[in-house]
Amino acid sequence: AQKITQTQPGMFVQEKEAVTLDCTYDTSDQSYGLFWYKQPSSGEMIFLIYQGSYDEQNATEGRYSLNFQKARKSANLVISASQLGDSAMYFCAMREGNFNKFYFGSGTKLNVKP
Amino acid sequence: DAGVIQSPRHEVTEMGQEVTLRCKPISGHNSLFWYRQTMMRGLELLIYFNNNVPIDDSGMPEDRFSAKMPNASFSTLKIQPSEPRDSAVYFCASSFGTGFAEAFFGQGTRLTVV
Description:
Number of helices of chain B: 0
Structural class of chain A: mainly beta
Low-confidence stretches of chain A: none
Helix content of chain A: under 10%
Low-confidence stretches of chain B: none
Largest sheet of chain A: 6 strands, mixed
Structural class of chain B: mainly beta
Strand content of chain A: over 45%
Number of strands of chain A: 12
Distance between the termini of chain B: 36 Å
Largest interface: A-B, 22 and 24 residues
Strand content of chain B: over 45%
Order of helices and strands of chain B: EEEEEEEEEEE
Order of helices and strands of chain A: EEEEEEEEEEEE
Mean pLDDT of chain B: 94
Oligomer: heterodimer
Number of helices of chain A: 0
Shape of chain B: globular
Radius of gyration of chain B: 13 Å
Radius of gyration of chain A: 14 Å
């Protein structure tokens, strides 16, 4: 079974609007970490936000927030007030297990329209 | 901090040749990951080291691939012999601790095997 599922291969959003990128995960561990990364067209992988499985509050970092719904095993990324520079691939990831192996989803390509 | 440093940034080689990719993790980080990214397969974890010891190499595609981490500040990924289907971007990433710390990625090595 896939550890991380991102069902949206591509998304469009109008500049200045909010957008939600979906991510569901599969684990039987009680303790794990969830991450989002951004990969612009230049290719580098940029860490955006982290959510621990025991964190009760949703993580926020500037315009990024993580909508964590533990019972549903979802960790959606919300980007508020989209900017043209937000156009990129976005990857959801999870660390779990004895040695906290990193699993990545297939990514969502976000295009922000002016 | 200089971040994760990978070399070379680009490599073009002929089929059958040996290719060695290099990675210098962030100082103090004790986990190191090698990933391969292609359009078809997305981001694949090849091998994961913790404290210089290979923990999980189940993602290494075949015996032509090998990875070493002789010390905490250096790792190599070798492909011998290389094949055109090995063409991809190879990322090295490092993280601190055995918990759920985020991984920091290098700029990647774009490998083209002709």
